[in-house]
Amino acid sequence: MAAAIDPKKSITIVNAFVVTTVQFLNQFAVKANDKLDKLNRQIQRLEALTQLLEYKLSDIPSFSAEPSKTVASDSSDKPTASEGPEAVRVEAPAEASSAPQEVPEEYKMYVNMFKYGIPRVAVEQKMRQDPAVDVAQLAKWLPAESTEA
Known about the structure:
Layout: H1 7-59, H2 84-91, H3 105-115, H4 120-128
Helix pairs in contact: 3-4
C-alpha cells in the first residue's frame, strides 16, 4: 500500500497553491483596473470633445436654433392654438417633388450638422437625445446613405 502523505508536506503544497493563485488574481485585478482606467480616460476625453464640438456649433448662426417647444399633432391636420404657425409649416405638403422641402426649425440644426461634415450616425445619435425630433424624419432632408465599401 501507498504510504500516507506527511501532513506538513500537504499543508506546504496547499499553501504554495494558494499563494500562486492569489498572486495571479492580484496581477489580473491590476491589469483589469489599468484597462478600465484607460477606457474611462478615453470616454472622458470623448465627452469633452463632444461638448467642445457642441459649443463650437452653437456659435455658428445656423446651428444656434433652439429645439422647438411645439410639436405638430400626428392625429389631426389642423394645428391647435398651442402649436402655432410652425406646426402648419411642418404639415404643409411639398409643392413639387423636385423642389427641396423647407426644413422645420427643430430639424435645421441637424441638417446643418450633416452639411458641415459631421457623420450621419453622429447626427442621428444627437437627434435621439432630443425628444422633440424624430430620427426617421431626417431622411426627408438628407441625401440617402451611400453604399460604398
